[in-house]
Design a protein that fits this description.
Shape: globular
CATH class of the largest domain: Alpha Beta
Radius of gyration: 20 Å
Length: 326
């Protein structure tokens, strides 16, 4: 077990970053990790069902990514719209920050906005001259490592086919591989966690236990709680679904329907309690998500798997390939 930040680093050839999705959603490669045997197998996502039991239940995050990226009317300030705080008041990230100090003004959609305050983590609270839908003409907030502007195709592909509840500023990317036809053949249920800024904040503390996550809101319906409690084995689809399962309140050992917030940070030596298997993409070096996967599968095993993925030229990150950890 390691809590050192440097131990979660790795060198990735830039050409292995998947800058666009494959033409077919379910055509991605899938690495299969067996924690009992320590074996690594290479396969394809289209054959996911062959690695599952008939009694397995997939738990997916049905959050919907909102078009949260906007530019000021003069094109000089970029906004990532995070949350509506009240009439005409929004919490945003801005770039460059030096142009948007307290009192600074700009315009979006010809509506004047003024920086009301700067929060401890650098987010700006913007008060606009009128209440309006800031997201109406926004674009999809692609991760910066893709190094390209989003286009019309991203409105479809940077979204799961089962996305339903608007509120995320990033996609739950393990779910991007599913087609409606493939999902229809598997037992599944949905939870909701609106992926926010906390998942992607860089870890700056050399001791990872010192890192603090932002809070994210989640919902578990009564139907989902009933299905999860009855499942023989629970397969979390994505790190966000796993975080919901591990953070959720229980009564007498059973999951209960709830709406709450969580800032759970899962890293070694955390012991999973409720997720039995995990489907996930390949994550950035030093990220909180890589630590979560290491807690689930073991630090040494994950390092071995990532080295194998690089050798075998898997596609990495949001639009890339995936791994199934059993």
């Amino acid at each position: 077990m390691s809590l050192r930040l440097a131990d979660y680093d790795y060198d990735l050839p830039p050409d292995l970053i998947a800058r666009r999705p494959l033409p077919q959603r379910d055509a991605s490669r899938m690495m299969i990790l067996d924690r009992r045997t320590g074996q690594i197998e290479h396969g394809h996502f289209q054959h996911l069902s062959a690695h599952l039991e008939p009694t397995d239940l997939l738990v997916l995050n049905n959050t919907r990514v909102v078009p949260a990226r906007r530019l000021s009317d003069d094109g000089k300030v970029e906004f990532l719209i995070l949350e509506k705080l009240g009439p005409a008041r929004w919490k945003c990230l801005v770039k460059p920050g030096r142009k948007m100090r307290v009192g600074a003004e700009t315009h979006i959609g010809k509506i004047a906005g003024r920086v009301e305050t700067i929060l401890p983590e650098g987010e700006r609270v913007i008060r606009f001259a009128a209440d309006f839908d800031v997201l109406a003409d926004g674009v999809m907030p692609l991760p910066p490592y893709l190094r390209r502007e989003s286009d019309l195709s991203d409105f479809e592909r940077y979204q799961t086919t089962y996305a339903e509840v608007p509120g995320a500023v990033a996609a739950p990317t393990a779910g991007l591989h599913f087609t409606p036809q493939l999902l229809a053949g598997l037992a599944h249920t949905f939870v909701t966690l609106h992926v926010g800024l906390g998942t992607f904040r860089p870890v700056k503390s050399e001791n990872i236990a010192d890192h603090r996550m932002h809070s994210e809101r989640f919902v578990i319906s009564a139907a989902a709680a009933k299905a999860i409690n009855a499942a023989h084995r629970v397969v979390a689809v994505g790190t966000t679904s796993l975080r919901v399962l591990e953070a959720a309140r229980r009564t007498h050992g059973k999951l209960v329907a709830q709406e709450s917030i969580t800032d759970i940070f899962i890293h070694p030596p955390y012991q999973m309690r409720y997720a039995d298997a995990l489907l996930t993409n390949f994550h950035l070096p030093r990220s909180t998500l890589l630590r979560l996967v290491s807690a689930f599968a073991g630090h040494a095993f994950v390092r071995e798997a990532y080295a194998a993925a690089i050798r075998e030229r898997y596609r990495f990150f949001s639009y890339g390939d995936c791994m199934l950890i059993l």
